[in-house]
Give the backbone structure.
Amino acid sequence: MRTLKIAAIFLLTLPKPDFVLAQPGENRIIASPELSDHIISKHIYGHFSEHLGRCIYGGFFVDENSTIPNTRRIRTDIVEALKKINIPNLRWPGGCFADEYHWHDGIGLRSERPKMINTHWGGVIEDNSFGTHEFLDLCELLGTEPYICGNVGSGSVEEMSKWVEYLNFDGVSPMADLRKQNGHEKSWNVKFWGVGNENWGCGGNMTADFYADQYKRYATYARNYGDNRLMKIAGGANSGDYNWTETLMKKVPLSMMWGISLHYYTIPKTWASKGSATNFDEREYFSALKSCLRMEELVSKHSTVMDRYDPEKRVALAVDEWGIWTDVEPGTNPGFLFQQNSLRDAIIAASTLNIFNNHSDRVRMANLAQTINVLQALILTDKEKMLLTPTYHVYDLYKVHQDATLIPLTIHCREYTLGDEKLSALNASASRDEAGNINISIVNIDPNQAMDLTLDFPDIQSRTLSAQIITAEKFTDHNTFDRPSTVKPVPFGGVKKSKESLTMKLPAKSIVVIKLAK
Ligand code: AHR
């Protein structure tokens, strides 16, 4: 029996007499709706699109004379799929690419745009045909907030400052005039603004101290125009580099940052040999889940550092790159990071999103890497063919948590053990939406054993119950162009409701999202 860390925190504050504590060996979740006090930002459900492999070209953006249905070269089936999951924001143009990208090369007549080498990602030629106007057109079609990452590593303060002016200034100025000449009269009023990416690595190999000073210079000249307040996000730490976060919090005035980013990837084996996306055994499944669940420790510890300087939690933690990173599919360009996506990845997505929901007092943005054909993708394409991955379906089920009020949970559960290693078998989060409906997402990561679970929830008698499940025969199961529906949500009838509780048998390796409609 193991009690999750969040349980320990909430047990201290719970109104004790009302609570039935779990018996040894019992799997129990106790919901405390009376302790709800903040919203799960929809921006936790954000995505990321880099000029990398076939994410933009061969993904979102089709060739000029393509017969694939599109609007101004932006692929219709992809737009429809992402609109269905209410994509709240999209990060662009990188990643490492962002610190080599010069926005000026991606505006004006396409035939006159200079070409460049994409040195990070396969050394391919980038023709700049997808630039600022195309990205904002994509965001408008998706109905999503753009999140643009500026170039600190190889750019200049002036270059970034002019990009903001080009995007957001509505009066008469050199950059606003240039935008108008290029066919866009009105400013776009972009809000989310990244000041560099991974500046400890591909974004300039800087020290935390040096970057903090650079941040202040770049952020100063990224101006607010009109009513538009930029939400500036400082390039944050790599995984457990708490000193990076501490240095930024210490050196940069809180009023200069909307957020600090954090990048962390789930690696099933080692960085040198990450493991296959679809051909792995239970040992590798276990180690991937262990790596994924480390996110709990990372967001807790980075938040603790931030709390010391910002107890009111004004600055957000933006986990703007996360997801599972495996070896590329055999025979594909190693620089393109193309990987398949299995039930295991859906379990990783669902568990990570539960962690973010439960830490949504500080984690107010997150971006899965990356939307199409790269790393933990939602969508895979092969010319005109397109499929939705198991991870996509998690976002579809979890969209109910966007901008809903978090309901704290106390979780008692058994462990999933392999050899002498152990992980909590269960994770969950819950929220109440604006209409008063309650949604609870629960993951049983144990690939071998179903779990009998009781969920105590006060006053649910009059609510209407429904549930959906994502699972499959094997944790390696995935969707292919020939069999696109191997892993997808289906209705789940295994939940029983009584006055103050739900009982269920959660199948092994499953994700269940329960709705208690008002
Ligand atoms: O998502 C792929 C790469 O991973 C990004 O470009 C970079 O920021 C990170 O290292």
Remarks:
- The chain is about 25% helix and 25% strand.
- The longest helix spans residues 282-309.
- Residues 1-19 have pLDDT under 50 and may be disordered.
- Residues 91 and 147 are 4 Å apart (CA to CA).
